[in-house]
Design a protein that fits this description.
It is built from 4 helices and 5 strands; from the N terminus they run αβββββααα. The longest helix has 39 residues. The relative contact order is 0.13.
Length: 153
């Protein structure tokens, strides 16, 4: 979606790129908890770890991000897995870095048994719930700040 298209549909839903929120629009195509991993451009940091975004709520991702959600594992488990996994081996492109879906799917993952995953989720879910609450509060405070500053100037 081009900048011109986005300007024609302003709204409250995040339009998210590979590294951050690019805009707010009036429609969304995802609702829930997801992991965004850069697809092209900025896909890894200087040490080889992926650029990740833990996203919850309603949003529209652009075409520069892989949208992931846990299957047989929680999305939080998947997020923490990638936070500890260098991905340089699946990055291609000399000028513009890229992670294709094929290369992403080629990663091998050792998944713990169901009991260990359940114990993990019991510990980690309250932490990520707090993260989501704080991010929502930050978003609300940012909107208030913008509103107040617009009245001052």
């Amino acid at each position: 979606m081009s900048k011109k298209e986005r300007l024609s549909i302003p709204g409250k839903y995040r339009y998210i790129g590979a590294t951050s929120v690019n805009d707010y629009i009036n429609k969304y195509n995802f609702d829930g908890i997801y992991l965004l991993l850069g697809e092209d451009g900025t896909v890894e940091d200087a040490t080889g770890y992926p650029i990740l975004q833990y996203i919850s709520g309603k949003f529209w991702p652009n075409n520069h991000a892989h949208v992931l959600q846990g299957k047989n594992v929680s999305t939080e488990w998947l997020y923490l897995f990638f936070k500890q996994r260098k991905i340089t081996s699946i990055v291609t492109g000399a000028v513009q870095k890229k992670i294709s879906q094929k290369n992403l799917n080629s990663l091998s993952i050792s998944i713990p048994d169901k009991d260990k995953l359940a114990r993990f989720d019991t510990i980690i879910n309250p932490i990520f719930k707090n993260i989501r609450i704080i991010e929502s509060e930050n978003h609300s405070l940012e909107k208030i700040k913008i509103e107040l500053l617009s009245k001052l100037f």
